[in-house]
Amino acid sequence: MSISQRHVRYGKYHGTGNDFIVVDADEYVPNRGAFAAHHCDRTDGIDGDERRGADGVLFLALEEKYSPPRVVMTLVQPDGSTAEMCGNGARVAAEWAMARTGASEVMIDTQAGTRHARRVPVADGDDLVAIEMGEPSFAPEVVPLDRDEPLVEGQLEGYAVTGINTGVPHAVVFVDDVDAVDLESDAPPIRHHDVFPEGANVTFAAPRDDGGYDQRTFERGVEGETLSCGTGAVAIAAVAAHLGRCEDDVVTVSPPGGDLRVEVPDDGPAVLYGPVAHEFDGEVPVTPPAAD
User: Binding of substrate: at which residues (predicted)?
Assistant: First the structure.
């Protein structure tokens, strides 16, 4: 059987609408970038329950000999690039690994470091998956920024922007109403601004009366808005705490896909909590069809 005839088994998962194709890393995919670009496409990609495509492909390698089990996560985005970290993607990876091992906690090896994840039982609903996200950093060399000082509410493209790294770079902007922002027009100039030499996700946040925040994020690699962004939710909570905008250590952040909880302690890693859903399984060609 030729490579062009081979198929790859996959699972489709999402975390508050942030959706991923999950492929066991033991499956041979010769060109992961091309695979992700084709099957994540929102017009011609995999046919989902509600919409086509995905926000990325998670290639996961499970190592059960460790206690707790470990899973090596590689996220390939729709543009073919890899992302160092993804909060919702890591939670999906944790759910995938816990379902296969029966464990209630796992270690996730990402390009941003190793992260501990665990299942959190909920009395009146589906369990949550919590993952440690590392300590957010405003340091210019970590974000990274093309400047010597942190960027805290600096003026960029008409907005007060704060640069932070929560596993990947984020440009965080507080506004009165996230729905009033023309994200497709206003986010790209910030995402590609010279101050961010590696680019940045652009996350807009609006405070709510209950102390939480509404969220919209334009993700690099996806090059558009996603229904949820875990690193963006952590970025909002961390920047809000830094600016004295938080009254509690745990903040509810609400992207379009649902609610996430973020814990940002004064000293220690941030923790992201949220649901994970397994939508369906399927098979797709290992080699995408050639373009016409």
Answer: 18, 77, 87-88, 201, 219-220, 230-231
